[in-house]
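User: Show me a protein chain along with its predicted structure.
Assistant: Here is one chain, sequence first, then structure tokens.
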Amino acid sequence: MSVRTPGAARADLVADAALDLLAERGMRGLTHRAVDEAAGLPQGSTSNLARTRQALLELAVRRLAEREARVLALHEMPDPRAGAGSLVDALALVAHRALTGNRELTLARYELALEATRRPELRAYFDAAGARFRDQLTALVTGLGSTDPERHSLSLIAWADGLMFSCVAGSFSARVPGLAEVRSDLEELLAGMLGAEKPW
């Protein structure tokens, strides 16, 4: 078991408060003073950890990656030898987790994604945060026999992102699909990609 240093624990506290503010108030609501207040820290504490706005955003992106890794549970992703049905089950669970118990985290991610389009220096941090899942998904669809794994991975991620945006911030925000619905969508999508005759 690793031992967290007080500095690391405070950095996590600040980053978690920043993510909460992003979900609640948007990018305009993210200030050093607001983070201090939300985290219950003395004024100036956030500035001591992240002196600039860029540094604060980078801290938030790194923490976002850590927390989303727990939601994605990459260690739970199946071996391709387990078959496409196992991958469908795993991806459906991941998407449903993001839609239900982690809506605020998903909202914070969209705020940071939009900000990264305006800050090239933040883009690198944001893209690196998503690379681990993207690379693992590409390896999984390759193992299942995909003839174009890069394109198929993009399609799966685009589908998941579109579903999450629609249900968290878009026109379907009042209705969250159940796990069975998400799984059915993924069955159809993956079956088409792999040229399967029927879903699993």
